Amino acid sequence: MAPVCRRTNKEMHRFSRLTSREIISVKSCVQSLGRRTQIENVLKVLKTRSGSLVDIGSGDGRIVIAAAKSGFKAVGFELNPWLVWYSRYKAWREGVHHNSSFYISDLWKVSFSEYSNVVIFGVPQMMEQLEVKLQTELQSSAKVVACRFPFPTWTPDDVAGEGIDTVWVYNAKTFKPPIRNDKDTERQELMTN
Ligand SMILES: C[S@@+](CC[C@H](N)C(=O)[O-])C[C@H]1O[C@@H](n2cnc3c(N)ncnc32)[C@H](O)[C@@H]1O
């Protein structure tokens, strides 16, 4: 059996030993996130894109799994280990474990530089700090999709959906400061002297 399946079996065993209180807590988180329209909006705005996708704070894995089904190589980073084990189990059950990975990680300790599509459904208080992090790390070909809460200073390229299912799309080209090479700096210095 492939190593991924062995890992999933071990996680399923761990998942099956949750206490009833832990099951209720995971279930309520999963139910509160189970909004199809929001996922549809995310996939709609990324329909011309391909390659790697990361969901920052992946919750129960619904976005990563839907993205993997749409052909992305999808990855989720999530602080809550129960949600990560649940996501891995769900990805295995839905047959997308080869196209998806989930890590128990703090988003502030991970670099997102390798991802060309980034999805975030965070809380408003974190968005300003996340702008700075993504602006530094992402390549200019990347796209960022913010669910429910937009980024405070970036200008979106596109908006889809309405109400709590709204998603905002940002093109990294528009928020990355232009790369200046040595020739530009020299020219600038000559002009000012
Ligand atoms: C609103 S939920 C969104 C879940 C998922 N992206 C979705 O749309 O279904 C936010 C998730 O971020 C996770 N989270 C919060 N702080 C985090 C951190 N510092 N590092 C990683 N995940 C975090 C929470 O545990 C929660 O599952």
From TrEMBL:
GO terms for molecular function: protein-lysine N-methyltransferase activity. Its main location: mitochondrion. Keywords: Membrane, Methyltransferase, Mitochondrion, S-adenosyl-L-methionine, Transferase, Transmembrane, Transmembrane helix. This is ATP synthase subunit C lysine N-methyltransferase. GO terms for biological process: methylation; positive regulation of sensory perception of pain; regulation of mitochondrial ATP synthesis coupled proton transport. It is found in: Mitochondrion membrane. The keyword Membrane applies. It is a single-pass membrane protein. GO terms for cellular component: mitochondrial membrane. InterPro entries: FAM173A/B, SAM-dependent_MTases_sf. Belongs to the ANT/ATPSC lysine N-methyltransferase family. SUPFAM superfamilies: S-adenosyl-L-methionine-dependent methyltransferases. It comes from Onychostoma macrolepis.
